[in-house]
Give the backbone structure.
Amino acid sequence: MHEVGIMETTIAAVLSEARGHDASRVHNIVLRVGALSGVEPDALRLAFDAAVKGTPADGAGLEIESVPARGRCPDCDLEFDVESDFIFTCPKCGRISGELVQGRELELTRIVMS
Amino acid sequence: MPTPLAPSAQKATRTVELRLSLLESNDRQAVANRRRFKELGMVALNLVSSPGSGKTTLLERTLAEFGAATRCAAVVGDLATDNDARRLGRTRAPVAQITTGSACHLDAGMVARAVGGLDLAGARILFIENVGNLVCPASFDLGEQVRVVLLSAAEGEDKPLKYPPIFKSAHVVLLTKVDVAGVLGFDVEAAAQNVRRIAPQARVIRLSAKSGEGIKEWYDLLGSLVNSGKG
Ligand SMILES: [Zn+2]
């Protein structure tokens, strides 16, 4: 359950950002989480309530944008979306590629505060 | 009840774009680790697997045999006991134990602190034995140059399909305990096939630290990593 630790550092970053902007309330937090990041959005949501409790982000909304995996075929120089099985099969030539162009994202994208 | 940060009046609502990595501090430390390992002329390998996949047995044999000619060091992450470090301590390699407590993975800071206490003079390879877990270690860069994922014959051949993030990030996959594959009904070829489907970039080695099968191929790989300074 590394999501608990990741959520704690995320909220620490959110609060430090809010302080830097002289804000007293955080209303909304937007994260981007890649399908191959190794982090479960549901586990992040579970960790969220405990991490914000009693802080200026208590009661804030949490939005998690999922970033699908995208692969690239070096033979065809083609980028393509990857299905949920995570086997990067090139739709043009059928080669299985190891090249990942998107899907490992794990990002604190934006905060709404006042 | 939320406690206000400052006792000020109502402020305007604003949106701040950040695009900050959630692993910012770990990734920064990982970059520092990687630079330090490079300065020391050392290749760092991050060994990841499920519990009981034979990491410690393989490491023990590797330190004794490969380590006899090429100086190696090891950092071992363990939940509670120091059994692994004690086993490895019987070889002459410098070994540091990281007791992770309830943590399910090593992070770059833990590795930096553990390495700080080791005599690394002349060491060419650092083995980092991660906590037995195929999920959490996937997200944490330790500053290693080479990520090695182990899959033993005591597990399912479909593990690569079930844990894509970690296999996807592997440079090397070791299929371990192949000496007992027949007894356990483990289809080594099917497992290798699944690795190739998820991680075609990974070098696959079938080995047994007990029978010695495939061990030479593993040592040859380590030797080439040392000579090239990277994988
Ligand atoms: Zn193609």
In short: Chain A touches chain B through 47 residues (CB under 8 Å). The mean pLDDT of chain A is 94. The first strand of chain A starts at residue 26 and ends at 34. Strands of chain A lie at 26-34, 61-67, 70-73, 78-81, 100-102, 106-113.
